């Protein structure tokens, strides 16, 4: 059996009843997080520009653009929502199955798949169980392909969320459309030829566009395949196919026999971001906040801050002196400086105004990022970070963090996920809509239709999606899962 056939066979034959309850609970948490960051990201300038572009294109309103209240053709709604979901760099990150893989350099798995499923799911008026099944399968395929690809793919400049996210989105939409194995294989073939996205665009509006295009490509590929559009049916493993052309190879043992055994979100897991910035900065951000609060440090106390980590971090966090919030998301000096001065690292801290604040700029000049040889020798599967703060009085404060809050080893519970969702969604939604959305996601497996959830996250002008809140409440049950059981 070829590798492409392995993937499409898994997608075709898996049913909702085959999914373990733990996986359902994990998926609910990732979906809530994905909706929250999409709502927050819908307010960003780049998202607004893209929303205007989608409005200008026009077309039949099939799916809601989250946070805006207007609708668009399903592929274009997926484009807008996917870009919004990645706009703040606040969306989740897959881990790796081996020390040879690099943490944070795989994919942000939820947003491309979620955006595609939301768009087509609304158009097809699917149930909550259909929604969960398609999302879980899409994320599983995306993560396994990203885990198997030669690391050269990312290191040479491809953004894997852009290139591989579209493959996961395509499989999720194909499942929603009821495609069998042969059209699913064609769906992959189409999506693989549409895949692109370059890391040179990190720190610009084009990086979130990558996630939007991945979602859009997934929708388009599945819809074309459904109509009989042709492509290669061995696109993953072919000599001139996806893995060889885009990476020079792959490890098939990370896919064959692995799909759903266990699900990737169970092991090694997916990390939810505690901060709206590049994930490779998060252990250091956790640590700086802990050290500042533990020792009651202030900007005026500090002579210098040294941040040591592995060699892949400087390769991704590329701005020593950022000028914009987008650049600040990929800057260790900014993350350290704002952490010291604000003692927070939320949405309110990652703004152009904060990046250009003279006090922040002055402190950034005293931050050094270096490769710590001891941490380098431990491998790249975690972003182990060490911070050494030299105080003006001569004292030194230091610490080390291997993972950040939100990592499967340090998971968020449902209450913490809800708080992050409220912080994000509060930029767009009313209190009532936020609480409805949280409850609907917690009970997604019991919802006959996802339209009430669409209504809750739509924002302004939600004509035609009436919600009977009493019915929602009557179907409620307590969500007891945490990010990793």
Describe what this molecule looks like in 3D.
The protein has 485 residues and is of the alpha+beta class. The chain has two domains: 3-271, 2-methylcitrate dehydratase PrpD, CATH 1.10.4100; 279-401, 2-methylcitrate dehydratase PrpD (60s Ribosomal Protein L30, Chain: A, 2-Layer Sandwich). It has 23 helices and eight strands. It has helices spanning 3-13, 21-41, 45-57, 74-87, 110-124, 128-148, 152-155, 160-176, 181-194, 206-226, 242-247, 265-269, 282-295, 312-316, 325-328, 332-342, 352-356, 358-364, 373-376, 414-425, 431-442, 451-458, 469-474; strands spanning 63-64, 71-72, 93-94, 270-271, 302-309, 367-371, 385-391, 396-401. Strands 6-5-7-8 form a four-stranded mixed β-sheet. A hairpin with a 4-residue loop joins strand 7 and strand 8. Helix 8 runs antiparallel to helix 9. It is globular, with a radius of gyration of 22 Å. The two termini are 34 Å apart.
Low-confidence stretches: 461-478, 480-485
The percent range for strand residues is 5-15%
Helix content: 40-55%
User: What count of helical segments does DSSP give?
Assistant: 23
The CATH superfamily of the largest domain is known as 2-methylcitrate dehydratase PrpD
Described by strand count, sense and barrel closure, the largest sheet is: 4 strands, mixed
Do you know the CATH topology of the largest domain? 2-methylcitrate dehydratase PrpD
CATH architecture of the largest domain: Orthogonal Bundle
CATH class (first level) name of the largest domain: Mainly Alpha
So what's the overall shape?
Answer: globular
Integer average pLDDT? 92
